[in-house]
Amino acid sequence: MLNPAPSGLSADAFVAVYGGIYEHAAWVAEAIAKEGYGPQDNDPAILARRMQAVVDAAAYERKLTLLRAHPELVGKLALAGKLTAHSTKEQASAGLDACSEEEFAAFQSLNSRYTSTFGFPFIIAVRNHTRTSILTAFRERVENDPDTEFDTAIRQTHQIARLRLDQMTSTS
Predict the structure, then answer these.
(1) Which residues pair with 2 in a beta bridge?
(2) 24, 70, 129, 158: which is the annotated catalytic residue?
(3) Each residue of 66-102: pLDDT tens digit?
(4) pLDDT digits (tens, 9 = 90+) for 104-151
């Protein structure tokens, strides 16, 4: 059960609490609030599926804006301490706040290449990875074609959202 339980919140409170599940995309929670929500949405799996459906139904440009809202891994915002609270915890959980000089240089180079190739930052559910596995995935995915990578990045945003919702359970 999510904490706080969506069914006990006003629409404004729901958006305030769940609006950051997708990075800088309160529109996802706003759509759920507009559709209506109830006790079934206290289950993170159900709410995650509903939020995913909102994103999946969005137009390409809206999805692209969602992807572009994500910070680079070990990027300028991280270095300046300007990540969202969710992103700060997530990057730290994978040890991205403790990169060696070599790893830092690799992230900077890959960030530049990836963003110039795809037009959005590399997105991966870092809580499921280590620095090494992230760099490996980064090196592999930068070689993807644009359609494959767009779809992969969207799937990763869904995984990130699900992990964020799971963290909000009363048992965590």
Answers:
(1) 169
(2) 70
(3) 999 998 887 654 555 655 777 777 777 777 777 888 9
(4) 899 999 999 999 999 999 999 998 898 899 999 999 999 999 999 999
Q: Considering its fold, how many domains does the chain have in total?
A: 2
Distance, in Å, from the CA atom of 115 to the CA atom of 132, rounded to the nearest integer, reads: 20
Q: Supply the CATH number for residue 133's domain.
A: 1.10.3330.10
Q: Is residue 162 part of a domain?
A: no
In a domain, 54, yes or no: yes
Q: Report the C-alpha gap between 95 and 169 in whole angstroms.
A: 24
80 and 15 in one domain? no
Q: What is the pTM for the complete model shown?
A: 0.88
Torsion of CA 34, 165, 144, 59, to 10 degrees: 0
Per the annotation, the verdict on 24 as an active-site residue is no
Beta carbons within 8 Å of 29's beta carbon, 6+ residues apart: 14, 15, 18, 19, 21, 51
